Amino acid sequence: MKIANAILYSQPNKKIMMKPSIKRLCLLTITSFLLFSCVSRKEIVYFQGLETAQHQLEDNVAKNVHIQASDLLTINVSASEPDAAIPFNLTVGTMSQNITGMDQLGLQTRPQMQTYHVNKKGQISFPVLGTIKVSGLSAQDLSDKLAGQLSTYIQEPIVNVRLVNFQVSILGEVNRPGTFDVNDDQISLPKALGFAGDLTIYGKRNNVLVVRQEDQKKSYAYLDLTDPETINSPFYYLQQNDVVYIEPNKAQIQSASYNRNATVYISIASVLVSLAVLLTR
To answer: Which of 244, 237, 241 is nearest to 165 (CA)?
Structure first.
């Protein structure tokens, strides 16, 4: 009887002793999950304290994109007398066009503008004007330069210059990495990241690498997207063929050795432990 009573009383006591252990395990699991899931605002929010930054954006934009060797340009010349501008507008035909500028269905087509290739010396060959040095100029600078020279042949010429091969590449921890065509003469780093669907939550926002090639020389800079002074960097506005790389943060690097959904599993485990506590009461 004494042995039976000892067994009888030992079982409830053992059950009572298990409760604090399970509760501690539950608390530890939940605490671990919270530590994994907590991210500082300073690591996520862009351009914190922007109102205190010294703005120099206009100067950065003005000095941003300039023409380089191997660039492709389209140059359109117009004037009050359209016939006077014809010799300065080179066009190319397509297989679907005939000499009269009509397509196979008999509909009038818009001629395709000829592109000008900037050679290694930074020059293009322009109708009538001959060889022109263009490297180092912005599109607006070249427009003004050509308009001045064409004024000898055309009254009040209007020149529109566009950089055709303006592309930027966004790689690393973004939602849609790739190479993107830029139709505007300027593009900021945030806008370029918008093309790529912005950074993932695993992207390192305070160490964004921008690699640039100018006149056969490469340069680079690391930008902090959480720092408002980044808007004053010469790399804030991108140039043609810039490469932007988003480095993964420490959590993502460490997750390479285990399942990316570990925090989800921890959350599920915490729920199961909570249920176990309730059932053992």
So the answer is: 241
Contacts of 73 by beta carbon, 8 Å cutoff, 6+ apart: 67, 115, 116, 118, 124, 134, 142, 161, 162, 163, 164
- pLDDT tens digits for range 55-77: 555 555 545 688 999 999 999 99
Q: How far apart are the first and last CA of the chain?
A: 29
**Domains contained in the chain, CATH given:** 22-65+166-281 (3.10.560.10), 72-163 (3.30.1950.10)
Q: Is 149:134 a contact under the CB 8 Å cutoff?
A: no
Report the alpha-carbon distance of residue 229 to residue 255 in Å, rounded: 32
Residue labelled with tokens 């566009």: 162
Tell me the pTM: 0.64
Whole-number Å distance between alpha carbons of 207 and 226 = 10
